[in-house]
Design a protein that fits this description.
The structure holds two protein chains of two kinds. Chain A is α+β, with helices and mostly antiparallel strands. Chain A has three helices and eight strands. Chain A has one domain: Alpha-D-Glucose-1,6-Bisphosphate, Chain A, domain 4, CATH 3.30.530.20. Chain A has helices spanning about 20-25, 30-35, 135-155, and strands at about 5-15, 40-45, 50, 60-65, 70-80, 85-95, 95-110, 115-125. In chain A, strands 1, 2, 3, 4, 5, 6, 7 and 8 form an eight-stranded antiparallel sheet that branches. In chain A, helix 1 crosses helix 2. Chain A is globular. Chain B is of the alpha+beta class. Chain B has one domain (about 5-150): START domain (Alpha-D-Glucose-1,6-Bisphosphate, Chain A, domain 4), CATH 3.30.530. Helix content of chain B is about 25%, strand content about 45%. Chain B has helices at about 20-35, 130-150, and strands at about 5-15, 50, 60-65, 70-80, 85-95, 95-110, 115-125. The termini of chain B are far apart. Classes of the chains: A alpha+beta, B alpha+beta. At the A-B interface, strand 1, strand 5, strand 6, strand 7 and strand 8 of A face strand 1, strand 4, strand 5, strand 6 and strand 7 of B.
């Protein structure tokens, strides 16, 4: 039997970098790959990856985590340089689709730095990740954003 | 100009009516094949319209309002479980401006005497150009039109 959980979570972060630098960290594969990867996950062997950061472009990759291959497939809908990125994405665990989401990243100038807001509105499918699916997704996103702090410090001129 | 603002909202609309989940699902699939169930049930398809009710498929069409801008609808299907569930992401334009990006979930379940349809939209409404309340109201009208069209079709 099918089931769905609808959930929205919001994560807010402050970074000591301009909106242009924080935005750039999301806008190229070189930048994003240097902070977006979880230390515990590795790329899936033989998997295809794509990073086409423009409206209508896709981003795809696969990771192996604790023996399961997770596949990410995103489509960019809205890009306002230094201000906003909106994309829809789905996640698979093995062959099973586990979620479909719309994610909004907003970049706002905050003094000398940037206030970042990530809002994910997600549909989690068929209990595959259990009742805690939204909390797991939020935790994973928070870990990723922690990595961005270090990346921005390392690349500060 | 309201600036680059995003309003996030989720709304859910439920309707129970006298058709089986299989009949309702077929009507969605057929409505797509024949034209559209959303926004413009009475319009004939035009050049540039696209209807592909399949996972990874896309629906695209534009409707010119009598006194206002052209509304463009563009959806991509993510998840289709026959007789049970349809999930798609879609964006709407008013003229050249993108006014929303949403994920829509349609769930069908057997109910006393027919089907309970639950439509849930998780949406990002952009730059003050559309509002969640308007979208919810509009979607309710569209669902009522859809049910009316089901009742009107020969059985």
């Amino acid at each position: 039997m099918t089931s769905v959980i609808h959930d929205t979570f919001v994560i807010q972060r402050s970074y000591q970098a301009t909106p242009a630098r924080v935005f750039a960290a999301f806008a190229s594969p070189e930048a994003k790959n240097s902070w977006g990867d979880s230390a515990e996950a590795g790329p899936a062997p033989g998997s295809e990856a794509e990073f086409d950061f423009r409206v209508g472009g896709r981003e795809r990759f696969s990771h192996v985590y604790q023996g399961t291959t997770y596949r990410y497939d995103a489509l960019y809908y809205d890009i306002v340089p230094d201000q906003r990125i909106i994309y829809c994405y789905e996640m698979y665990a093995g062959e099973a689709r586990i979620s479909v989401s719309v994610a909004t990243i907003e970049f706002a100038k905050d003094g000398d730095g940037t206030a970042l807001t990530v809002t994910e509105q997600g549909v989690y499918l068929d209990g595959i990740d259990g009742d805690q699916a939204p909390a797991l997704r939020k935790g994973g996103t928070e870990e990723m954003l922690d990595g961005l702090t270090g990346y921005l410090a390392r690349t500060a001129s | 100009m309201t600036g680059r603002a995003v309003q996030h909202a989720t709304f859910s609309i439920e309707r129970t009516f006298e058709f089986s989940p299989a009949e309702v699902f077929a009507a969605f699939a057929t409505a797509e094949a024949n034209g559209r169930w959303l926004f413009a049930p009475d319009e004939a398809p035009k050049d540039g319209d696209e209807f592909d009710f399949s996972v990874g498929g896309r629906d695209h069409f534009a409707v010119k309002t009598p006194d206002g801008p052209t509304h463009t609808y563009d959806a991509s299907y993510y998840d289709i479980v026959p007789d049970q569930r349809i999930i798609y992401c879609y964006e709407m334009y008013s003229g050249d401006a993108r006014i929303s990006v949403s994920v829509a979930t349609i769930e069908l379940s057997p109910a006393q005497g027919g089907t309970r349809l639950t439509f849930t939209e998780d949406g990002a409404y952009l730059d003050g150009l559309d509002l969640p309340r308007q979208r919810e109201e509009g979607t309710g009208f569209v669902l009522d039109d859809f049910i009316r069209a089901l009742r009107d079709q020969p059985r």
